[in-house]
Amino acid sequence: MSPALVAQRRSSSTSQKVKVDFDQSTGVAVMHMQSPPVNSLSLEFLTDVCIALEKLEMDKSCRGLVVTSSQPKVFSAGLDILDMYGKSPEHCAEFWKAVQEMWLKFYGSDMITIAAVNGSSPAGGCLLSMTCDYRIMADNPRYSIGLNETKLGIVAPFWFKDTMVNTVGHRTTEMALQLGLLYSPAEALKIGLVDQLVREDQVLTTATETMTKWLAIPDHARQLTKSMMRKPTIDKLTSNREADVNNFVKFITKDSIQKSLGMYLEMLKRRKA
């Protein structure tokens, strides 16, 4: 095959915070999150991710998507606190709509989605990985994953909870959410929060190899089955989106919550210093 034809069959698109490589010969795209330092889910980043995902969904030749991080040691640190601290109610509402949109697009995607979790993945980062069909994590005991919102004085909304219940079951989720637990890769594998552990340098190649098994299943049958499993959870948010936004804004703008977010940001500053 000529170099020109190879280049034609591989396409790449890059926004400031997201790089997508699409191989038309396999029908598989790789989304590299590249929002330094820790891929925090800011309004701008969430918007870029949603636009990239929408473009892939519209391309019917794209059947699978691997999501991974270009940042060392972290998959995604979760929601950007700077989009929730000291911001107007209007900004908080816009931010939360973007979080909802990201979840709806990933959780309801027709594509096969595999999370190549090559670093720590707390809170919203854990949510993003749970929206995927399969999760492969780097077997590094220094990394952790989980919904730890209560540790910051924040309550994970019902659809975060529902996603985790669908992944690891009710009792495990109840313990995890109340205690704000972060699991090591080995613990995450044990409870089913991730599906496979591999060496850090093999996460992306393993995701690509795993994708071939999923691609062997006829799309229509797999998509209908996925929809059947996930639609009730998706419908619960789509029918309550506005109320969910209002609840978030009301909660996050409370003085007590703003104070605890401020204290957490101060702690991060001291840690960096």
UniProtKB/TrEMBL annotation:
What PROSITE patterns has UniProt attached to this entry? Answer: ENOYL_COA_HYDRATASE
In which compartments does the protein localize?
A: Mitochondrion matrix
Q: Which SUPFAM superfamilies match?
A: ClpP/crotonase
Q: Which reaction does it catalyse?
A: (2E)-tetradecenoyl-CoA = (3Z)-tetradecenoyl-CoA; (3Z)-decenoyl-CoA = (2E)-decenoyl-CoA; (3Z)-dodecenoyl-CoA = (2E)-dodecenoyl-CoA; a (3E)-enoyl-CoA = a 4-saturated (2E)-enoyl-CoA
Q: Which Pfam families match?
A: ECH_1 (PF00378)
EC number assigned by the record: 5.3.3.8
GO CC terms in record: mitochondrial matrix
Query: Its domain of life?
Result: Eukaryota
Task: Supply the enzyme class, top level.
Answer: isomerase
**Listed GO biological process terms:** fatty acid beta-oxidation
Keyword Lipid metabolism on this protein?
yes
Keyword list (alphabetical) reads:
Acetylation, Fatty acid metabolism, Isomerase, Lipid metabolism, Mitochondrion, Transit peptide
GO molecular-function term, one example from the UniProt record: delta(3)-delta(2)-enoyl-CoA isomerase activity
Tell me the InterPro entries matching this sequence. ClpP/crotonase-like_dom_sf, Enoyl-CoA_hyd/isom_CS, Enoyl-CoA_hydra/iso
> Signal peptide location in the record?
none
Q: In which pathway does it act?
A: Lipid metabolism; fatty acid beta-oxidation
What this chain does, per the entry, is described as: Key enzyme of fatty acid beta-oxidation. Able to isomerize both 3-cis (3Z) and 3-trans (3E) double bonds into the 2-trans (2E) form in a range of enoyl-CoA species, with a preference for (3Z)-enoyl-CoAs over (3E)-enoyl-CoAs. The catalytic efficiency of this enzyme is not affected by the fatty acyl chain length.
What does the record note on quaternary structure?
A: Homotrimer.
Q: Which protein family is named in the record?
A: Belongs to the enoyl-CoA hydratase/isomerase family.
PANTHER family per the UniProt record, alphabetical: ENOYL-COA DELTA ISOMERASE 1, MITOCHONDRIAL, ENOYL-COA HYDRATASE-RELATED
> What is this protein called in UniProt?
Enoyl-CoA delta isomerase 1, mitochondrial
